[in-house]
Amino acid sequence: VVWSVFPAMDESGGIASSVRGGLPPEASRLFRVYRTMANMLEKRGYMIPREMREMTPGGFVGKFGEYPSRESLTILVEKSDDDSNQLFVFFPEDEKVGVKPISVYTDRMKAESVLNAILVLRVDMTPFAKQAVQEMSDSFRIEHFKEAELLVDITQHQLVPEHQVLTQNEKLELLKRYRLKETQLPRIQPNDPVARYYGMKRGTVVKIIRPSETAGRYVTYRVCM
């Protein structure tokens, strides 16, 4: 079962004080992380069940308790246009994740034929764990975010313009229309926070839409390189 939470927002984009005050600090923190993760998955084109979107703070505590087990927060989603394209979200218990949990996760991914995963880290991974993830990159794509990076949804910040990741067909159409090679497009780095949010890979093209006083909106394209 996949679950998520969408707590009430105040004008600054943070959790409303009534929500913050109603949950213990750890649950409140995970609540915020969960909300961002659910938004992220939806914007990447994964199916997010209605009960996830509509879950209340009370429902979150009812489901996971006031002191949630991080393992119980595991999410499994599939792409809306391809049910074989699935992704796990794991919430490791360790503050610094080592090689052993990585092996446990990849064993589960292998058993369930899931090739993609996101790790939500309390603090970080050990250098050996990072190396293990890198060495498995031919078989599995494992991304990782620190909890602190997910407390706020960066795409909801007023200074971040709308981003739309193009499909392969849309990318080819764009290049053909303007008679461009992808290397001629402006670049966005793979470690850019927005590129990471959308899970962009090298060669991914993103459409960026900014408001414009004269034209109404100003559209640019960038390639992840």
Automatic annotation (TrEMBL):
<feature type="domain" description="RNA polymerase subunit H/Rpb5 C-terminal">
    <location>
        <begin position="152"/>
        <end position="224"/>
    </location>
</feature>
<dbReference type="GO" id="GO:0003899">
    <property type="term" value="F:DNA-directed RNA polymerase activity"/>
</dbReference>
<keyword id="KW-0539">Nucleus</keyword>
<dbReference type="GO" id="GO:0005665">
    <property type="term" value="C:RNA polymerase II, core complex"/>
</dbReference>
<dbReference type="Pfam" id="PF03871">
    <property type="entry name" value="RNA_pol_Rpb5_N"/>
</dbReference>
<dbReference type="InterPro" id="IPR036710">
    <property type="entry name" value="RNA_pol_Rpb5_N_sf"/>
</dbReference>
<keyword id="KW-0804">Transcription</keyword>
<comment type="similarity">
    <text>Belongs to the archaeal Rpo5/eukaryotic RPB5 RNA polymerase subunit family.</text>
</comment>
<feature type="domain" description="RNA polymerase Rpb5 N-terminal">
    <location>
        <begin position="26"/>
        <end position="109"/>
    </location>
</feature>
<dbReference type="InterPro" id="IPR005571">
    <property type="entry name" value="RNA_pol_Rpb5_N"/>
</dbReference>
<dbReference type="GO" id="GO:0006366">
    <property type="term" value="P:transcription by RNA polymerase II"/>
</dbReference>
<dbReference type="GO" id="GO:0006362">
    <property type="term" value="P:transcription elongation by RNA polymerase I"/>
</dbReference>
<dbReference type="GO" id="GO:0005736">
    <property type="term" value="C:RNA polymerase I complex"/>
</dbReference>
<dbReference type="InterPro" id="IPR000783">
    <property type="entry name" value="RNA_pol_subH/Rpb5_C"/>
</dbReference>
<dbReference type="InterPro" id="IPR035913">
    <property type="entry name" value="RPB5-like_sf"/>
</dbReference>
<dbReference type="GO" id="GO:0003677">
    <property type="term" value="F:DNA binding"/>
</dbReference>
<protein>
    <recommendedName>
        <fullName>DNA-directed RNA polymerases I, II, and III subunit RPABC1</fullName>
    </recommendedName>
</protein>
<dbReference type="GO" id="GO:0042797">
    <property type="term" value="P:tRNA transcription by RNA polymerase III"/>
</dbReference>
<dbReference type="Pfam" id="PF01191">
    <property type="entry name" value="RNA_pol_Rpb5_C"/>
</dbReference>
<dbReference type="GO" id="GO:0005666">
    <property type="term" value="C:RNA polymerase III complex"/>
</dbReference>
<dbReference type="InterPro" id="IPR014381">
    <property type="entry name" value="Arch_Rpo5/euc_Rpb5"/>
</dbReference>
